[in-house]
Structure formats: C-alpha cells, structure tokens
Amino acid sequence: MDLPGDVAEVLATSYREVSVQVPLRRDDGSLVVAQGYRVQHNGARGPYKGGLRYHADADLDEVRALAALMTWKTALLDLPFGGAKGGIRIDPATLSQRELQSLTRTFALSLSHVLGAYRDIPAPDVNTNAQVMAWFMDAYSSRHGYTPAAVTGKPIEMGGAPGREAATGRGLVYVVEAAARRWGWDLTGKRVVVQGFGNVGSWAAREFAALGARVVAVSDVRGGVVNDRGLDVDGLVRTVSGGGSVTEIDVAHTPIGLDELMTMECDILVPAALGNAITEDNAAAVAAAVVVEGANHPVTPAADRILADRGVRVVPDILANGGGVTGSYFEWTQNIQQFRWREERFNAELGDRLQSAFTQVADRAEDTGSSYRLAAYSIALDRVARAVRLRGYV
Fold it and tell me: Which residues span the domain enclosing 145?
C-alpha cells in the first residue's frame, strides 16, 4: 500500500487506554477488586465501537489487539465507526446475578466519562449479553439522562433492535452464502463443524441447518458431540438455552474431544469460541476446505501461513463476524431516530452489507493474488488512512 510512515505511526497505537479498578462486594461480604479496561484505538471514521468481555484471562494486551481489530472491521464494512474494546478480568460464572449486576454498574460508571452515543458505544462480547447491556445503559443513563444509543445489543424492551441478537451468527452465514455463489458451491449437504456454541456458534448452526447444510459436530467448553448424519440443531439450542451443555443433548450423538473436533474432515469449519483455536500445532491437521472465523483472531499468524500453504481458504474474522457490529450500527441509528425497523428490513440490510463486503474482498484478493485476510486488511487500512489524512492528523 506504500503507507507513509507518519500515517502508520498513528494507526499502530491506540488513541486512549483506560485501566480501572472495579471493586465488588460479594454476597458473603468479601471484597473482590477486578481490573477493567477500555481501549479506544482509532476514531477517525466515527465514534469508537466495540464489545465488552468478562473473562478470567482478559488483559490489556488482548483488549488492545481486539480494539484494533474493531477499527479494521468497521472500516471494511464501511460503517461510520472507529474501533474500541473493553473487558473485565473476572470469571462471571462464579458470580451471582446480583454480583454481576453490581460489577457491571460499577464498571459503567467508572468509564462513563469516555463513553457516549457520539463518543464510544459498547456492545456485548464474550460472557456478556443483552441483560448486561441493559444494566450498563441504565448506569450510564443515571449520569447522562436516558441514552439508549450509548449501548447496543440491548433487550428489545430497552431500545434493542429485532434481529441484533442473531446478527453475528446469521451474518457469518450470509458471508458464506456469498462465497458459495462465487465458488460455485451448493451448500445443501455440506458438512459443517462449529467450535463454540454460544451466541455466534448457535445462530450460525441454525442458519446453516436452515439452508440444508449438515451440522455434523459442535462443541462448548465441556466437550463436543458429533453425528455424521447431522445433529439436531434445534435440540442443541433448547438444551443450551436451558442451561445445559451440548454434551447433554438427548439425541443420537457420539462424544468428541475438543482437539479432535478441530481436525475433523468437513467442508466448513467455524471456530466461534475464543482466539488462538488454530495454531501452528494443529493447523497441519485441519481437514476443512474452508475456515470461517466466527471468533476474533481464532487462527494465529503462523497457522494462517500453514493453512494457506495447504490450500485451505480462510474467511477472516473482520469480515466473517462483522454481522454483530453491522447489527449494532442498525440499532444505534434506530435509537438516534427513535424509529424501530421491522426484523425483515434488518436482515435484508444485514445481508446486503455483508455480501457486498465479501465481493469487495474477493475482488481485491483476485486482482492482487493475495489471501482474503490480506485483501480485507488492505481495504480497511486504506479507508482509515484516508480518514486520518482528511481530519488533518498527519
């Protein structure tokens, strides 16, 4: 791209990094002091946008990397946002509902001075959901007045958008549909493996099944299940929605280990859990024709090179899981306009955006002979660099 050094220097670092204490009085009277983070990477194209994750391994380096990914993702999808990310280093599974709410409200108030509908808009991520966003918005609004546009991924009753919950997983399948048309694939009967059965993985599995693909294996943190004829996805969703694990489904299946699942023979592998699922240690054994990154950075750079050398296509995260932030954009605009769309319009707009982005990436990759990942990053980087210059930062 011949990117000038001064522009590269601006884009290589974050605009603002905030680290805060999040004290929590436990139900038993003890005190826990968790560490919270919010990193605002670049806002040249609009207000910062990015999720909040609650995880025991969250740290500043991870949040910093994810914030940069959001900058490239929003630019690739041509959304009027910059990139940010946040998190708290804590295991939410160890918290009661009251403790989780208290933690969230304290976190929101500690960051409220750097957030806002036109400044930085959080959303759900790993181990956070619509309920967490409702608490977060309510705490923020207690200081700034009722501001539904300050947070996305909210419950419908609090200004959420019909279709937003499914947007990341559904959007992933929209991207795969666009790829299938370009590659001359018929998705009917294609073997799909989904690693991670949270919001993204479960909705992706539902959408694949609705198109006639065979979801042959899925997993969560407790293990995996496989059925070569195709799993009962609706049954899996009911089991998990009821608080169970995919391993507890009461239909025909065979247990499978997480490592074995990642190397199953299939047409489409969707790593939709945490990062670094495919590394140089297991990339050579991946037996999928295409890897579609439902999670953020599930394929390490070393693994990416191995997959490329083996001819395994990789649809990168900033494209494949872009449905979430695209859906958040739709929710944000509806909050500002105070006008709710029908879900049919939401899904149609989502499909148009993601399929258009895929076409741009595929065209760039074919024109330059590069991977989809390099093509996606070059498009995104060019858009952000132009905004940086136009604003007069360099």
Answer: 14-151
Q: Are residues 257 and 314 in the same domain?
A: yes
Residue in 230, 195, 227, 180 with CA at minimum distance from that of residue 210:
230
CATH of the domain at 41: 3.40.50.10860
Q: Do residues 101 and 208 share a domain?
A: no
Q: Which residues contact 250 (CB under 8 A, 6 or more apart)?
A: 235, 239
Task: Please give the positions annotated as active site.
Answer: 85
For residues 197 and 315, state if they share a domain: yes
CATH number, position 219: 3.40.50.720
CA-to-CA distance for 340 and 335, rounded, in angstroms? 8
Q: 153 near 166, Cβ under 8 Å?
A: no
- The two structure tokens encoding residue 225: 């299940």
Q: Single out the residue of 115, 127, 119 nearest to residue 34, CA to CA.
A: 127
Give me the torsion for CA of 301, 307, 310, 312, rounded to 10°. -140
Strand arrangement of the beta sheet that strand 266-271 belongs to: 254-256, 223-226, 214-220, 191-195, 266-271, 288-292, 313-315
> Model-level pTM?
0.94
Mean pLDDT in the chain?
Answer: 96
- pLDDT above 90 coverage of the chain, percent: 95
Answer yes or no: are the C-beta atoms of 374 and 362 closer than 8 Å. no
**pLDDT tens sequence across 255-283:** 999 899 999 999 999 999 988 999 999 99
